[in-house]
Amino acid sequence: MGSSDFVTLFFLVAAVLIFFQLRSVLGRRTGNEKSPFETLAQREAAKAPGADDGKVVTLQRRDEANAEDRFAAIDAYAPVGTPLNDQLRELLRHDATFTPKEFLNGAKIAYEMIVLAYAEDDRKTLKGLLSREVFEGFESAIADRESRGETMKSTFVGIEKADITHALAKDNEEQITVRILSQLITATYDKSGALVDGDAEAVADVNDVWTFARDVRSRDPNWKLIATEAEQ
């Protein structure tokens, strides 16, 4: 093998190694990105005691979950003897990985994603986070807005408060209802750009009651929004 051939081979090997290093650092989008609930669970697992920085972290198996600590987390969230405490305890018996804090963190992220996706006519994002019935309602409202040539601009200011109000574990389905107080700036404009609804500068308080659910038999472990209600 000549010296030029050796140099060519050296650079080819180096290029392959660099490619694989970059791919491991940057990652690849596959179109199957996780929901807010699942990515949150992975982050929490990575922060758990005993997790080694820089190493792959395996999520704790359900049968390995520390049930005592999780029941204590429920008692800290909802007083013992209250209906909500009983409901959350029953849900934990169905799902050994459940904690109120982790669920609410995921619900807040999902809430922001859904609100902004609706304003931006992002049907793809909505379809992955909503049940079929709720998606049809959102899609119908978006289509109606588009038929009038209107556009919506929303700025998500933040969530002031989010509380679990009800939980249900029955057969193979889990449901959790959350009351959310958020702050938004929302304005709708017609074809000419004139404001037809909302306020482009004022921050509005929004009270929503959303119910999330998941089928424990499904291969998809993610929660989806199955019902919405606005409180006055």
Automatic annotation (TrEMBL):
Keywords: Membrane, Transit peptide, Transmembrane, Transmembrane helix. The keyword Hydrolase does not apply. It comes from the Bacteria. It is found in: Membrane. The chain crosses the membrane at residues 6-26. Residues 84-230 form the Tim44-like domain. Pfam families: Tim44. InterPro entries: NTF2-like_dom_sf, Tim44-like, Tim44-like_dom, UCP031890_Tim44-rel. The keyword Membrane applies. Belongs to the Tim44 family. This is Calcium-binding protein. It comes from Rhizobium wuzhouense. The lineage of its organism: Bacteria, Pseudomonadati, Pseudomonadota, Alphaproteobacteria, Hyphomicrobiales.
